[in-house]
Amino acid sequence: PLLALVAVSLGIFGILRGIDFLLVAGGTHPLAILYSTDIGNLTNTLSGLGEVVVAILGIEITVIAIIVQLAANKYSSKIMDLFVGDKFNVAVISLYVITSINTVLVVNTINERSLNYFSITFTLVLIILSLLFVIPHFNYIFNFLRPENFLAYVSRRAAEKLENIPSDVKGILKAKRKTREDIDFIGDIALNSVFQGDRSVTLLSLTSLREILTEYFTLKSDLPKEWFRITDEEKFDPDFSSYSEFVLKSIEENKVYLERKIFSLYDVIFNNSKTKLRDVASGVLLNTQLITIEAVRWGDQGAIDNCLKYFNSYLRASIRDKDPRSAFNTLEHYRIVAEEVLTKFPEIV
Fold it and tell me: Quick check: 302 and 255 in contact, CB under 8 A?
């Protein structure tokens, strides 16, 4: 990235000087009438504007650091990585850096012989753009850090990775790792929101995880076998580290790696919310129901079996904690699932 910024800055400066050279080929620069003939005054004015851009960049970085860190403390530390990797944020910060570098280069090459008025004009345009972008960029930052927006962004990114899984083993493992990171990111936000009592964000996170799995069902039959194999790295994943080799082998055979990953998060959220945030626990049950119905629609018996196992887990946790309301809610959603499964797989019912 550093070399790219240097290359772009020097490239722009070189193109501007070339255009200036062509414009003065006739003798008089056509833009000379717009500027003062006093080179010292012109240099001082432009250098002062360059300092303004650097000051704005400093303000931008300060505000971004504070706002993003606050959001990271509240939701997940991975928000910082998400923000830094966003293309629009990178483009805006790059604009300020390129403008500052270009201003330094232009200011220090102004003289009576060069007549680089086109370079000066272009630099002024960059400075004006930098000033105009301040408020829209702050607005973008605030919108970007709204939970519904960055959750939608991560869900969309995970779905895109699933849709574009490469054919080579290395590419498959990389896509799998990135998808797992996105799911963990959403799971962290959900759990932190449960502990903070933020019901709306938790429910949004549950919905985001369900949407990833719903999209996954449409692509699952075309995925390569390597996708379903649990690697040594994944065995140390908190969602899989407690499983025996027998269970891990069963997950591979039934091709329920991603389902088990997401439902492990659902299970943790349910256990931490069933007595404190009952609507969140109901959200877990509802999303589990919808995922099961989607699995029935696609005829994925491995996924259906996995869903029923987690319904059993929810019910067992409710009975263990002597929580009749959670047990009743679980059985209610279990009944709806059973009625849906009855249409295609009566033997499972």
Answer: yes
* Torsion 292-294-296-300 (CA) sign: negative
Task: Specify whether the CB–CB gap between 327 and 311 falls below 8 A.
Answer: no
If DSSP codes are grouped into helix, strand and coil, which group holds residue 347? coil
Q: What is the pLDDT of residue 292?
A: 93
Residue 39, classed as helix, strand or coil, is helix
CA nearest neighbour of 164 among 176, 155, 150, 154: 176
Residue 162's contacts (CB-CB under 8 Å, 6 or more residues apart) are 175, 179, 212, 215, 216, 219
pLDDT tens, residue by residue, 194-206: 888 888 889 999 9
What is the Cα–Cα distance from 272 to 282, expressed in whole angstroms?
12
Residue that is written with structure tokens 């220090």 in the block: 108
Share of the chain above pLDDT 70, in %: 93
Residue 256 has pLDDT above 90, yes or no: no
Say what the pLDDT of residue 112 is. 66
At 102, is the secondary structure helix, strand, or coil? Answer: helix
Which residues have C-beta within 8 Å of that of residue 311, sequence separation ≥ 6? 288, 292, 330, 333, 334, 337
- The angle subtended at Cα 229 by Cα 224 and Cα 230, nearest 5°, is 150
- The one-letter code for the residue type at 283 is G
Are 224 and 165 in contact, with CB atoms under 8 Å apart? yes
Identity (one letter) of the amino acid at 71? A
Rounded Cα gap, residues 133 and 196, in angstroms: 35
With beta carbons less than 8 A apart as the criterion, state whether 209 and 265 touch. Answer: yes
For the entire predicted model, the pTM comes to 0.77
Query: Crossing angle of helices 199-219/169-196, nearest 10°?
Result: 160
Q: Is the pLDDT of residue 289 over 90?
A: yes
SS3 308: helix
Counting beta carbons within 10 angstroms of the beta carbon of residue 263, is it exposed (0 to 12), middle (13 to 18) or buried (19 or more)?
buried
Residue 255 backbone dihedrals phi, psi, to 5 degrees: 55, 50
Q: Copy the structure tokens of residue 204.
A: 């949004």
How does DSSP classify residue 220? Answer: G
Q: Could you read off the pLDDT of 63-79 as tens digits, one per residue?
A: 888 888 888 888 877 78
